[in-house]
Amino acid sequence: SEVNKYRRLRPSGAPRRRLPDALIIGVKKCGTRALLEFLRLHPDVRAAGSEVHFFDKFYHKGFEWYRQRMPATLEGQLTMEKTPSYWVTRSAPRRVHAMNPAVRLLAVVRDPVTRAVSDYTQSASKRPSLPRFEQLALVNSTHNWGVPWSIVDATWGPVRLGVYARPLRRWLRRFPRRRLLLVSGERLVADPAAEMARVQEFLGLKKVITEKHFYFNSTKGFPCLLKSETSPTPHCLGKTKGRSHPHIDPSAIERLREFYRPYNERFYELSGINFGWP
Ligand code: A3P
C-alpha cells in the first residue's frame, strides 16, 4: 500500500530535517566559526554550514523554509545553526522564543577592543581604501585645556558591537540565564578542549571533543584540527579566520579600553562572569 511504501522509504528513525535545538547567536568576530567547526566534530551534532539569517532577514519565509535549510538528523542528534547577527537583532529574542522557548543559546564573547580591530580588519580586507582604524574609532573633540582631545565614536559599528550588556539584557528578558552559554573567545583559542568541555556539558552531549582533536599551529598562531568529518588530515580554519591585525596606536587602544570599562563591568554583572578583559 501507499502507507507501506512510504514506511519503506522513510522508516521511523530515518534522518529528517528539524528546527534547531541550539543556536550560536553571536557575537560577530569573536570566534563563532571556530565554535561551530569544533562542535561539528561531535557525532551527535549536525549544523547548517553557512549562516541562515532566518531570525533577522528571512523570518517572513516561515518556519518550514527554515527547517528545509537544516541538515537531516537522526533521533537524538542536535540540529544547530550559527548567525552572529542574531545577537543584535532586536526582534530575534522574541522570534527565537516563538520557535522554541527551550532552545539552547550560545554566544561567544571576546575583549571588545580586539573584537573591534578584528571587525575593522575584515572590512579593510574588502575595502583597501578604508581610513586607518584610529581615524574611524575616534572623533576629534573640542580641546581640553588646550590639549587636543579625541573621543570614541560609539556609533561606529565595530565599536558599538562591543557593548555587550545591552543585547544581553534583551536576550535575558526572554530566556532564563541557564539557557544561554557565554563562551570565552580567548579561552577558545588558549584552551579549546577546556572550553569545548563546557559547551558539550551545556548541550547535554557526551564529552567526545577533547585535547585529541586539537593541535596548536604556530605558523597560524591558532589551534587547528587534527581531523574532522570533512577532512581526515590536519587543517586550520580558512584564511579569513585568524588574520593578522594592523598596528594600532597604543593611545587609541587605551582610549577604547577606558570607553569599554563601564560597559564590561555591566556585562560581567549581568552575566555573572568576570571575563577579565584589560
Ligand atoms: P581574527 O581573524 O581577527 O583573528 P568569527 O568566526 O566570529 O568571525 O570570528 C573570527 C575570529 O575567530 C578570528 O578573528 C580569530 O581571532 C578567532 N578564532 C578563534 N579560534 C580560531 C581558530 N582556531 N582559528 C582561527 N581563528 C580563530
From TrEMBL:
Statement: the UniProt record of this protein carries the keyword Transferase: yes
Domain Sulfotransferase: 20-261
Keywords: Glycoprotein, Membrane, Transferase, Transmembrane, Transmembrane helix
Signal peptide: none
Keyword Transmembrane helix tagged: yes
Protein known as: Sulfotransferase domain-containing protein
Organism encoding this protein: Plutella xylostella (Diamondback moth)
Residues of the full protein shown: 69 to 346 of 346
